[in-house]
Each structure stands twice: as C-alpha cells, then as structure tokens.
C-alpha cells in the first residue's frame, strides 16, 4: 500500500528534523536505512497494518501506546515485545503493560518481512512503523520514521513501573520526559495521543471514591461529570472500559484538549496539564483553535520520541521472532 501525500514544506521540515536529531545523538538511524537490503519494508508494514486496522480500528490506540511504552523503558529497542522466560518476568507482564494488545500485528509484519528479506529488519523498527501507520489509518497524522534500530536482549517487568503513570503529577511527568530528552511541549503534545482508545475503571476509581483516603472525589474533576463516571465505574470495578475521549475515542483529533479544559480528562496526569503555565497554555490554545497545530506538533514529537536511547550499529541484534531473543 503506497501513501498518497503531497510533499509540503512541513513534511520537508520533519525529514530535516529526523536527520538533525539523529546526527545530534550520534546514532545511525536514517530515512531509507533499508533501501538496499529491504526496499519494500515500509510498504509491507503499511499493508499489514492497514489489513488489521481496517478490521479492528480500536487496535490503533494500544499500538501507539505500545511504542510509547517501549521507548520509555530501555529506549526504542523492542523490549516490550519479548515474552517472559522461566527465569525472567518481561516488561510485557509489568502492571502498566498488562492492557497492551496488538502484538499480532507486529508478528504479522515480522513474518511478512522475513519472507521478503530474512534477518534484516528489527522488531524495534517494525513497532515504530506500525504505530505510525496505525495512527494514519484512523485519519491521524503521518510522520517520517528514520530506521536502523536494533533489538534489545533485556526485558524486565519491574522496570515498567518507571513509566509515566496515569496518576502522575506535573512535576513527575516533566522530570520523566526530560530524562528521555523530551521537552515540556513534547509532554503536552504526546498526551494528546489520549484522543484515541479506552482505559479500565481501575485507573480512575481512586479519583472517584477515595482520592485523599477519606472517601472523597478528586476536586479537579468536573463535578457534573462525576455522577456519569460513578455510574460506569463502581468502587471495586477494575475491568469496565471507559472512552478516553468520549464520543470520538476512535478518531484521532484535537478533542482531547477540549475535554482536559473541561476538567473531564480520565487520568490525574491529564488534569495535571492544567497545573503548569506552558502545558495549560498549549491545552487552551488547541482547544480554542480546533487543534490548528496539533497534527504538526504531534508528528514532530513522535519523530523525537522514536529515537530515544536507540541501539544501532552492532549493538543488540535483529530478532528472528519478536517475542524471543535469538
């Protein structure tokens, strides 16, 4: 499947950003990395992704989240894809990752690529491409993905606990993003990924029923929205799914920022965006301008995020199967 895109000045800026960022980090990621060894890699991944998303569009959100979770633990090295072994519990079974799904899309893309060019394309690169293509398939933005990541050999469940948490405050979130070379703007832009997908009641029951341990509700939640949420989520409910962006949770748009402005974001980390001058200004701007720069900003932040602490050159390996080290 080929993409039909106009090469706008913004796309050219994104490509330049990719090259500049790679160079600044001294890594070997580049656009067209597989031009000689697997020239059809992007078309193959795009087709596999489209085949799955056309049947199950709800997979776009967890695939985007999977890429985010991969990059924030040990860098974008595909470690989130590894299965546990008899002697090691992998990231996949860490509490923040238990709700991830869509691994079959990664496996299908890997299988197709192994037929075309065996032993060449890493699982880390496949995940980076699938996340981009899945978002694009639901009418979201498209960004260039420099390639050349290698696969990590280490995956530890406990390390997943250091992921930015849904109950994080703004100081914690800013520190976590800064530790990965991402800016405050990247934080508020990438939070916009919550425009798609669902979350379990377990992520909000404390906000609803016992916020400070006194049977109270988080005062930053819109009090008019609380009865609706309580009707959906009883105190002991850990499985019912809530839409992250009610009414358009399958559509990639700027509506997330309108919801945060209304104090109806599901997570404490969503509400926390109103606790900082820079992030609250961005939320307000996107809500009032109907997301005038959201897609452009999201593309730029995804290019940056996709290059966190990557393994390149002879580091790591190219896995034969994405769930297993060689």
Entry keywords:
326 residues; mainly alpha; two-stranded antiparallel ribbon; 13 helices; globular
Short description:
42% of the residues lie in helices and 2% in strands.
Walk me through the structure.
There is one protein chain. The chain has 326 residues and is mainly α. 42% of the residues lie in helices and 2% in strands. A two-stranded antiparallel sheet has the order 1-2. The radius of gyration is 19 Å and the shape is globular. Residues 1-7 and 20-26 have low confidence and may be disordered.
Summarize the helix and strand pattern as letters.
HHHHHHHEHHEHHHH
Q: What portion of the residues fall into strands of 2 or more residues? A: under 5%
What is the gyration radius calculated from CA atoms?
Answer: 19 Å
Q: Which strand order do you get reading across the main beta sheet? A: 1-2
* C-alpha termini separation: 30 Å
- pLDDT < 50 stretches: 1-7, 20-26
Average pLDDT over all residues: 91
Reported for the largest beta sheet, the result is:
2 strands, antiparallel
How many beta strands in the DSSP annotation? 2
What structural class is derived from the secondary structure elements?
mainly alpha
Q: Any idea what the shape is?
A: globular
Q: Treating each run of at least 4 consecutive H or I residues as one helix, how many helices?
A: 13
Which bin fits the share of residues in helices?
A: 40-55%
């Amino acid at each position: 499947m080929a993409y039909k895109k106009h090469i706008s000045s913004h796309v050219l800026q994104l490509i330049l950003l990719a090259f500049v960022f790679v160079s600044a980090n001294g890594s070997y990621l580049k656009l067209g990395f597989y031009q000689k060894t697997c020239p059809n890699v992007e078309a193959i991944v795009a087709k596999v992704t489209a085949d799955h998303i056309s049947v199950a569009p709800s997979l776009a959100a967890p695939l985007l989240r999977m890429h985010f979770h991969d990059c924030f633990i040990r860098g974008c090295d595909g470690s989130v894809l590894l299965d546990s072994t008899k002697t090691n519990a992998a990231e996949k079974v860490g509490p923040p990752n238990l709700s991830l799904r869509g691994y079959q899309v990664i496996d299908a893309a890997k299988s197709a690529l192994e037929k075309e060019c065996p032993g060449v394309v890493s699982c880390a690169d496949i995940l980076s491409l699938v996340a981009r293509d899945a978002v694009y398939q639901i009418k979201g933005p498209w960004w260039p993905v420099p390639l050349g990541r290698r696969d990590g050999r280490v995956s530890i469940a406990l390390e997943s606990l250091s992921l930015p948490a849904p109950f994080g405050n703004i100081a914690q979130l800013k520190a976590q993003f800064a530790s990965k070379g991402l800016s405050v703007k990247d934080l508020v832009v990438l939070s916009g990924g919550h425009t798609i997908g669902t979350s379990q009641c377990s992520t909000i029951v404390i906000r609803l029923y016992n916020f400070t341990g006194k049977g109270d509700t988080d005062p930053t939640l819109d009090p008019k929205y609380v009865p609706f949420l309580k009707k959906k989520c009883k105190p002991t409910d850990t499985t019912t799914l809530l839409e992250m962006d009610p009414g358009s949770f399958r559509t990639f748009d700027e509506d997330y920022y309108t919801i945060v402005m209304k104090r109806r974001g599901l997570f404490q980390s969503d509400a926390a965006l109103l606790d900082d001058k820079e992030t609250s200004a961005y939320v307000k701007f996107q809500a009032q301008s109907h997301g005038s720069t959201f897609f452009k900003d999201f593309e730029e932040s995804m290019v940056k995020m996709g290059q966190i602490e990557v393994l390149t050159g002879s580091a790591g390996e190219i896995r034969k199967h994405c769930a297993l080290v060689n």
